[in-house]
Write a structure and sequence with these properties.
The protein has 274 residues and is an alpha/beta fold. It has 2 domains: 16-243, Alpha-Beta Barrel (TIM Barrel); 244-273, no CATH class. It has 11 helices and 8 strands. The chain has an 8-stranded parallel β-barrel, surrounded by 7 helices. Helix 6 (132-140) links the parallel strand 4 (122-126) and strand 5 (145-150). Helix 2 crosses helix 4 (72-85) and helix 5 (104-117) packs across helix 6 (132-140). The longest helix has 18 residues, at 246-263. The chain is globular, with a radius of gyration of 20 Å. The chain starts with 15 loop residues before the first helix and ends in an 11-residue tail after the last helix.
Length: 274
């Protein structure tokens, strides 16, 4: 593989060892969500090394108002599509709410389905010390685990809404959780909506990569929901930078198509068979 994680050409998939090597080199890398084969192909060919089939699909694919309702079966088909649509990216599947919290055995059963049925290369789960037994069980079974701290959307009701986490003394607890997750075998830690100074402190304290979302520029990687990045999401969070205005472009294209159909301008002979 090319020494560069982002955009490097290779005949094989990115692995967790490649991510660890990037951390050692001080190389930053991007991660994006993906939920279908066509967008996965675009992101993969653009050189994005890690694709996350996030439980954010609950909202951006299935139309729920939070991540809580999405099921294992709903995410399995999306994960399989992303794996089929990509050839280089490491595909990480989110374990949805209720699929791992009750016990390590439940976590292993759920994660094994994503690995066997969907072809995922790793899984992600939320939480600190309370999920250490689950992380240890998955890693012992050969399943790479990406951890997730800070604003953990599956716990939004306990957290009191979508709020910045880790301020004040809570930052020390988050750092302690991050170190414990690393010790348990997690290959990376997502830090969501935490103060930038704390995220940088966690990043320098860990040997494994950190992935920031609303956590400042000091993390090893950055992740965004692709619909946010492309401008499809109304009223996105403060941490989102809109790199395109796909909603406006789609609206323009749909209106042009509808107008030409209504007027009879489409289809022309060019678009018909004889």
């Amino acid at each position: 593989m090319s020494s560069s994680l982002y955009g490097g050409a290779s005949g094989r998939r990115v692995t967790v060892r490649d991510l660890a090597s990037a951390k050692e080199r001080g190389e930053k890398w991007p991660m994006l969500t993906a939920y279908d084969a066509m967008t996965a192909r675009v992101f993969d060919e653009a050189g994005v090394p890690v694709l996350l089939v996030g439980d954010s699909a609950a909202m951006v694919v299935y139309g729920y108002d939070s991540t809580l309702p999405v099921t294992v079966d709903e995410l399995l088909s999306l994960t399989a599509a992303v794996v089929r649509g990509s050839s280089r990216a490491l595909v990480v599947a989110d374990l949805p709410f209720g699929s791992y919290q009750s016990s390590p055995a439940q976590a292993l059963e759920s994660a094994a389905r994503f690995m066997k049925e969907a072809g995922a290369h790793a899984v992600k789960l939320e939480g600190g010390r309370r999920v250490l037994p689950q992380v240890e069980a998955l890693v012992a079974a050969g399943i790479p685990v990406m951890a997730h701290l800070g604003l953990t959307p599956q716990s939004v009701n306990t957290l009191g809404g979508y709020r910045v986490q880790g301020r004040g003394q809570d930052g020390d607890e988050l750092l302690s959780d991050a170190k414990a997750l690393q010790q348990a075998g997690a290959f990376a830690v997502v830090l969501e909506c935490v103060p930038a100074e704390l995220a940088e402190r966690v990043t320098t304290s860990l040997a494994v990569p950190t992935v920031g979302i609303g956590a400042g520029a000091g993390t090893d990687a950055q992740v965004l929901v692709w619909q946010d990045l492309m401008g499809l999401t109304p009223n996105p969070a403060k941490f989102v930078r809109k790199y395109s205005d796909l909603a406006t472009e789609m609206d323009r294209a749909v209106r042009a198509f509808a107008s030409e159909v209504s007027s009879g301008a489409f289809p022309t002979r060019e678009h018909a068979y004889s």
